[in-house]
Design goal:
The protein has about 210 residues and is mostly helical. Helix content is about 70%, strand content about 0%. The protein has 9 helices and no strands. The N and C termini lie far apart (about 45 Å).
């Protein structure tokens, strides 16, 4: 099986899982419904992304046992809705609004940059140094981090933040560093690296280096 099938299954089942929790705990509060919309909606958008602009790195073939283990690991993201819905806690309006705003920013960065990367590389190989990637070399990962931060905010618990931190340190950072190493084969990479951040956008730049490159 391909690793993307495991990821797609988990993403696609998220809305069903969250709705099942709501039924099991008879929790249809505003916070639970918003969580269902945000996390369930993210799963739907992920499936649409896989159809419209799939990521080649998820085409890798893996043994069934490895796929099952990967499903379990990714399933740790479901702990956030379990905590929120089973506890019955109601986040404040400020927390809810903050979560929605952070989620929207994350979705914009994540899917927008993935679309730019897919359609740019479809017609031209090489470095992508404009648009979403002008100031950050990994805006897609930044978007994904923001998305899961929004879920953790709604859960109001340290465990979802710990899980996100583990994914960030164990998967996101190694993948970003691996990407940098691969892109270093391009002569213009060092100049691009100097004016962009690994994850967070490098916003404040001096004009002189840019003028020299032009």
């Amino acid at each position: 099986m391909k690793i993307k099938h495991v990821i797609n299954l988990q993403k696609g089942l998220t809305s069903i899982f969250v709705l099942g929790l709501m039924v099991a705990y008879n929790n249809f509060t505003l916070a639970a419904l918003i969580y269902l919309a945000l996390h369930g909606g993210y799963g739907i958008l992920w499936l649409l992304k896989d159809r419209l602009f799939p990521d080649k790195q998820w085409e890798q073939e893996v043994p069934v046992a490895s796929g099952m283990f990967a499903f379990f690991i990714i399933g740790l993201y479901w702990i956030a809705p379990f905590i929120l819905i089973s506890s019955g806690l109601q986040p404040s309006n400020i927390l809810i609004a903050s979560s929605v705003l952070i989620n929207l920013l994350g979705v914009f960065l994540h899917f927008g940059s993935d679309a730019q990367k897919y359609y740019t590389l479809k017609y031209k190989t090489g470095l992508i140094t404009e648009g979403f990637f002008a100031r950050s070399r990994n805006p897609n990962y930044l978007g994904e981090v923001l998305i899961y931060v929004s879920f953790a905010i709604l859960a109001q618990h340290w465990i979802p933040f710990l899980i996100l931190g583990a994914f960030f340190a164990g998967m996101f950072v190694p993948n970003m560093l691996k990407k940098d190493k691969s892109l270093s084969r391009y002569p213009e990479f060092e100049a691009y690296k100097a004016r962009s951040g690994l994850l967070l956008p490098k916003l404040f730049l001096t004009a002189q280096p840019i003028l020299q490159e032009n």
